[in-house]
Amino acid sequence: MAENSASMYGEGTPCWADAQLPDVEAGKRFYGELFGWTFDGEDAPGASVWARLDGEPVASLAPKTDGRMPTVWTVYFATPDARALTARITDAGGRLISGPFAVADLGAAALVTDPEGAVFGLWQSDGHRGFGRRREPGAFVWTELYTPDPAAANTFYGDLFHEALFGSGAEPDFGRALITDVFPAEMPAHFLVHFRVGDLDAALATVRRLGGRVQVPPFDASYGRVAVVTDNQGASFALLTR
Question: Where do the VOC domain residues begin and end (predicted)?
């Protein structure tokens, strides 16, 4: 399903995802083959690139500027006012990591954590609305927060993003789960970005062939059949089929 490019995402809707990678060129090869993505910026090795599916933006791959940074996928939630939302987040026990800062003439971004330490992004659009496609094979379809305290997370995010999660007609692509449902108890709270695939077994075989690994084999969740994988540089994400 293609999104209407004129519409904007409401506050609290997952609207973008990026991967911070040691080697963007290797990332382009991995995700290009896995999801059929093409990339802008082919002539600028090592620069951030937009991934596209059938010409529409679906994610970005960025070079890590510091080797100590994690190799990770980050989900961004839409907001009309990143500064006001970061203030609400810190008032509620979260933490500001960076921003809000302007991203060219596209919008403003911030990185924050919730009270349990799970990192997520905020995106205030000013020219780049976010996903041009979602919920279809090769595109973002879901994000799951794995946390030691789902009840507290429901309260925190319910207060922040009430309309997106619980409002009339809401179709949230955002769930909360106890860490030990899937991961070891010592795993820190984190968001897991899910991309939809048509054939989960075939996608897992491709991940392995490209040098990635299966972190959690397929399991049934309320929102589809899921497997957790890492790419060939160690960034974790999930594959989902419905």
Answer: 13-125, 139-242
Query: Tokens 């963007």 appear where?
Result: 24
Q: In which residue are the tokens 């940074």 written?
A: 69
169-214 pLDDT, tens per residue? 999 999 999 999 999 999 999 999 999 999 999 999 999 999 999 9
The answer to whether 100 touches 124, Cβ cutoff 8 Å, is: yes
The pair of three-digit structure tokens given for residue 22, joined into one six-digit string: 């040691």
CATH topology of domain 13-125: 2,3-Dihydroxybiphenyl 1,2-Dioxygenase; domain 1 (3.10.180)
Give the rounded distance of the alpha carbon of 97 from its chain centre: 17
Check if the beta carbon of residue 190 is closer than 8 Å to that of residue 118. yes
- Quote the pLDDT of residue 127: 87
Tell how far CA 190 is from the center of its chain.
11
